[in-house]
Write a structure and sequence with these properties.
The protein is mainly beta. The chain is built from two helices and twelve strands. The strands form three sheets. Strands 1, 6, 7, 8, 9, 10, 11 and 12 form an eight-stranded antiparallel beta sheet that branches. Strands 2-3 form a two-stranded antiparallel sheet. It is globular and about 50 Å long. InterPro entries: NADase_transloc (IPR057561).
């Protein structure tokens, strides 16, 4: 990998319109690599893994969230807060489940993938009540589209069950997209 994690986080590209204001996680995996310490903390999860770098090339560089507890991570979560003030939020979410890297496709099956999750949504409007919904993922690489009945300002994704990895007991989400990001349908 030609860049450190910090260098990647500092890349600026006007093509990106990030809509996630804040990200918090219950835990994350830390790994020592030849380029230094790599934190799979989800802080760049909205950035699509195809990154335009200063050397004028696109590189496929996943920057996923990987839960960091012993075992498959049942009960672990990632929470995103959408930019904007009331009534802004999102009615649409896309999740790229598992470890997705076109250079290393074997990592998808070697790591755990979410099978079922619960989404906890705080509506954008203060007069609406929070709600939750259960979602199921198929066990192949695809972007899961989720549509909410109400606009959400804060969304927490909790792992309820997983497809077990053949090598690693770590559960991964490669990317989360919201309206305004590269994969937005709006």
């Amino acid at each position: 990998m030609p860049y450190t994690q910090e260098e990647l986080r500092n890349l600026k590209d006007n093509a990106w319109d990030f809509t996630i204001e804040a990200i918090s996680v219950s835990s994350f995996l830390t790994e020592k690599t030849s380029k230094g310490i790599w934190k799979y903390d989800g802080q760049d999860i909205e950035r699509f893994p195809l990154v335009y770098t200063p050397d004028y090339k696109y590189h496929f560089i996943p920057m996923p969230w990987v839960e960091g507890v012993k075992g498959p991570g049942i009960g672990e979560w990632i929470e995103v807060v959408i930019n904007g003030i009331e009534p802004w939020g999102t009615c649409y979410l896309q999740i790229l489940n598992g470890y997705v890297d076109v250079r290393k496709p074997h990592l998808f099956k070697q790591n755990n993938r979410i099978k079922e999750a619960t989404l906890f949504c705080k509506p954008s409007r203060s007069d609406e009540k929070p709600f939750e919904m259960k979602i199921k993922f198929e066990d192949f690489v695809y972007v899961k589209n989720i549509v909410f009945d109400k606009s959400c300002r804060k969304i927490k994704i909790r792992i309820d069950s997983v497809y077990e990895g053949s090598k690693y007991d770590d559960t991964v989400i490669t990317s989360i997209y919201t309206p305004g990001t590269v994969w937005s349908p709006f």
